[in-house]
Design goal:
The complex is a heterodimer. By secondary structure, chain A is an all-alpha fold. Chain A has 13 helices and no strands. The chains are: A mainly alpha, B mainly alpha. Chains A and B meet through α2, α3, α4, α5 and α6 of A and α1, α2, α3 and α4 of B.
Chain lengths: 240, 100
C-alpha cells in the first residue's frame, strides 16, 4: 500500500480532477453514440426528450435504461420496470465494492457521491488502472473520471432524443428492431466467449417464452431473469 | 412531463443508487457469499435473453423482427461496434419493410 499513483502526487484537487477527466475521456466518447441511440429509441416508447434526459441524469445505467424502454414498448407496468431495474443493476454492488477499495481516503459524503457514478465502464477503468499501478486514486481523480463519463451520457441522450424528431417516420418505425439489435449486440460477444452465458441467456429466453403466455410481459421478464441467472449457477463449474 | 413516467424514472433511480451506495457506506469489509456474487454476475445475461425473446417476434411484423434479429446476430459476430450493429440493422429492417 506504500505505492502512490501519479494522480496522487499532484496535490491540487483541480489538477487531480482534470487528470481524472482525461482518463475518463475514452468512456465519455464511447458513451455518446450509445446515449444518442438511447435518446432516439426512448422517443419510440413515448418518452419525451426531457423525460429521456431526466432518466439518463438520474439513473445513469445504460443497460437498464434500454431495458426500461424495451419493457415500456412491450406494455409492462411501472412496478415491473422498477423491479427489473433493481435486479439488473444489483451487479453494481460488486463493482461499487471494488471501486471504493481503490478510492481509499474518501469521506462518507464523498463515497455517497462517487457511488452514484459506478457503471460497468467507470468500474473497469477505475479498478483496471488501479491493478496496473498497484495503487489508489484520490476521490478528486475518481470524480473527474466519473464526471466525464456522466457528461457524455447525458449530453448524448439530449442529442438523440431531441434529434429524433428529425428522423423520418418511415425510418423511425424500423427503430424498434434497432432496440433488439442493441440487446443482441450486447449479448453476442459474451455468448461467443462462454457456453455458460449462452446457457443462461438461452434458458432465460425459453422461460420467458413459456411464462409470457401465462402472465404479463413485465413479470415474465422479471421472473425469467432471476431464474435464468440462478440456473446459470449449475453450469458455472463445467465451463472454463 | 407525464407523472407516471416521472414516477418510473425516480423509482429506477432509487433502486439503481442503493446497490451502488451500500458498499461504500455499510459493509466496507463484508464478504459476499460466492454463490450470491455469481448469481448477480449472471443477471445481465439472463435479462438480455429475456428481453430479446420472444419480444423480437412480437414487433409490428414478426418476420421483420426475425430478419432484423438475424442481421444483428451476424453483424455482432463480426465484432462491429454496438452502434454500427444497431444502425445497420435499422437500415436492413427499413429496406426489408418494403418487401415483407
Amino acid at each position: 500500500m506504500q505505492n502512490t499513483t501519479p494522480d496522487k502526487q499532484t496535490t491540487q484537487p483541480l489538477q487531480q480532477f482534470f487528470s481524472g477527466a482525461r482518463a475518463g475521456l475514452p468512456v465519455a466518447v464511447g458513451y455518446v453514440p450509445i446515449a444518442i441511440a438511447f435518446g432516439a429509441l426512448a422517443t419510440r416508447a413515448q418518452l419525451s426528450p426531457r423525460e429521456a434526459v431526466l432518466m439518463s441524469a438520474l439513473v445513469f445505467a445504460g443497460a437498464s435504461q434500454f431495458m426500461a424502454v424495451g419493457m415500456m414498448l412491450s406494455g409492462a407496468g411501472g412496478l415491473q420496470i422498477v423491479i427489473a431495474t433493481l435486479f439488473v443493476n444489483l451487479r453494481h454492488l460488486i463493482m461499487s465494492m471494488a471501486v471504493h477499495h481503490t478510492v481509499k481516503e474518501a469521506s462518507r459524503p464523498w463515497r455517497a457521491l462517487l457511488s452514484f457514478g459506478v457503471t460497468d465502464e467507470t468500474f473497469a477503468l477505475l479498478t483496471l488502472q488501479n491493478a496496473k499501478n498497484h495503487a489508489h486514486h484520490t476521490h478528486w481523480f475518481a470524480a473527474g473520471l466519473i464526471g466525464a463519463a456522466y457528461t457524455g451520457w447525458v449530453v448524448g441522450t439530449a442529442i438523440g432524443s431531441f434529434g429524433a424528431q428529425m428522423i423520418p417516420p418511415a425510418v423511425s418505425a424500423s427503430m424498434t428492431v434497432g432496440l433488439y439489435a442493441m440487446f443482441i449486440a450486447l449479448l453476442m460477444p459474451h455468448v461467443r466467449r462462454s457456453w455458460r452465458v449462452a446457457f443462461i441467456a438461452g434458458s432465460s429466453m425459453a422461460l420467458n417464452a413459456v411464462l409470457s403466455s401465462f402472465i404479463s410481459a413485465g413479470w415474465a421478464i422479471v421472473i425469467s431473469t432471476t431464474l435464468g441467472a440462478a440456473l446459470g449457477l449449475w453450469v458455472q463449474e463445467a465451463d472454463v | 412531463m407525464n407523472a407516471t413516467t416521472i414516477a418510473i424514472i425516480v423509482g429506477m433511480a432509487v433502486v439503481t443508487y442503493i446497490p451502488r451506495l451500500l458498499p461504500g457506506l455499510l459493509f466496507e469489509r463484508y464478504q459476499m457469499p460466492e454463490g450470491f456474487k455469481r448469481w448477480l454476475q449472471n443477471i445481465p445475461y439472463a435479462a438480455l435473453g429475456a428481453l430479446i425473446f420472444p419480444g423480437i417476434i412480437h414487433t409490428e411484423k414478426p418476420l421483420l423482427g426475425i430478419v432484423g434479429g438475424l442481421t444483428a446476430v451476424v453483424l455482432s459476430l463480426l465484432d462491429l461496434h454496438l452502434v454500427i450493429v444497431m444502425t445497420a440493422t435499422i437500415f436492413v429492417a427499413f429496406v426489408a419493410s418494403y418487401f415483407l
